[in-house]
Amino acid sequence: MAITPVILCGGSGTRLWPLSRASYPKQYLALAGSDTLLQQTVKRVGALDGVAAPLIISNNEQRFLVAEQLRAIDTTAGAIVLEPVARNTAPAVAAAALVALRQDADATLLVLPSDHAIANEARFLEAVRAARTLADDGYLVTFGIPPTSAHTGYGYIRRGAATQVCASGFNIDQFVEKPDADKAAALIAAGDCYWNSGMFMFKASAYLDELERLAPAMLKQVRAAVEQGAVDIDFFRLDKASLEACPSDSIDYAVMEKARRAAVVDADGLGWNDIGSWSAVAEIAERDENGNSLIGDVVTHGVKNSYVRGESRMVAAIGVENLVIVETPDVVLVTSKDHVQDVKRVVETLIAEGRSESVFHQRVFRPWGDYEGICVGDRFQVKKIVVKPGASLSLQMHFHRSEHWIVVKGTARVVNGDTTTLLTENQSTYIPLGTTHRLENPGRVPLELIEVQSGAYLGEDDIVRFQDDYGRTK
């Protein structure tokens, strides 16, 4: 009876902005090593004995990011389940349980966020094995992290009596909401509390039984979303109408706090970090003799206890302390470590003003490759486009812009109205406004080209797709 890992890939990309954004949240970033947080999570569970292929829960917009990052580490998911609308973790896990039961009638789920870091993977495997014994005994299990500070950004779990099933397992006495500083200090002083890690383990059937008892309306809608869902290329798409009618709630509120048999495993020694702020990133980064973490092309003088990251150019810092400085091609963030939680306030302002910096990077990833904005002016913009070998953009047309393409590397097959041509380096073509066109890479190396758009409107939504290899309609 294999363990089925359920990896949750939600996220709004606000807390680690500007590196993390709505279209590219932190689980797709390499913040604690060369692999992304999602890839680390997948590899971590792959080290377990008797583990099934991971079941990934994602949203529609990020589906190709998930697929590409799994492909990069040579991993095939058991399923990539797409949520057409977000309904929090309780419905997401319910959908995962129903899908898992189709493959294994006695499935045991290991539910993991995709955006956490765990330094001691051997200890993680030990904690999972302990949780498995509790799950086999019918418990719904969460993993508790012994607190190291009076942190006000985490929920807490107060443990009760030992379960008698395993030495590190305890009945749950109480879940405590994110406390203020005084209450957090009191909880730590009591010595019987853990941080709530957001990781869980239980039999799929046991979780669904509790959801049926505690939130039957939720389970009814999730069951309909799965039953009426459909396979879409390599994904399983939940039914939108059913999920829209589903109540939204977290697994803690909807199930764990009211479950008849809930247990917490003492997960001491994991080196766990939810990477919930830039100060948390700084905690796991290497530091020099001045307490600084310097990533990228960074030059400092008289700087102490700071995190400075340059993504696209040199960053120079002089005579500052306790700062976070993050540079991307289109944004520079400067904040004290004491105010990193307020980064989301800036993102909220950007959203209210309709600015794209809250959603997209200057470099935007697509299933066929990526494009990067180079220059924007009145009625024109310039982009660098990279198309992966064998990939193609959709057959499409624009109402408001024309395009010039100049190949700088590789070979392009271009459909331009009724004509199909091959272009190589230093060759170009012009796509008139309103002309049906398509760009393909028939070669074995990435195709790189410069695109110059001109017209009255240059938004990405000015597109009509007639044919698309990836099932996109807009």
Automatic annotation (TrEMBL):
Alphabetized GO MF terms: GTP binding; isomerase activity; mannose-1-phosphate guanylyltransferase (GTP) activity
Top EC class, one word: transferase
Pfam families, per database record: ManC_GMP_beta-helix, MannoseP_isomer, NTP_transferase
Highest taxon above the source species: Bacteria
Residue span, Mannose-6-phosphate isomerase type II C-terminal domain: 354-468
Enzyme Commission designation: 2.7.7.13
Span of domain MannoseP isomerase/GMP-like beta-helix: 298-350
GO biological process entries: GDP-mannose biosynthetic process; polysaccharide biosynthetic process
Transmembrane portions of the chain: none
InterPro entries: GMPP_N, Man1P_GuaTrfase/Man6P_Isoase, Man6P_isomerase-2_C, ManC/GMP-like_b-helix, Mannose-6P_isomerase_type2, NTP_transferase_dom, Nucleotide-diphossugar_trans, RmlC-like_jellyroll
NCBIfam families, per database record: GMP_PMI
Protein family according to the UniProt entry: Belongs to the mannose-6-phosphate isomerase type 2 family.
Protein name (record): mannose-1-phosphate guanylyltransferase
Species assigned in the record: Pandoraea oxalativorans
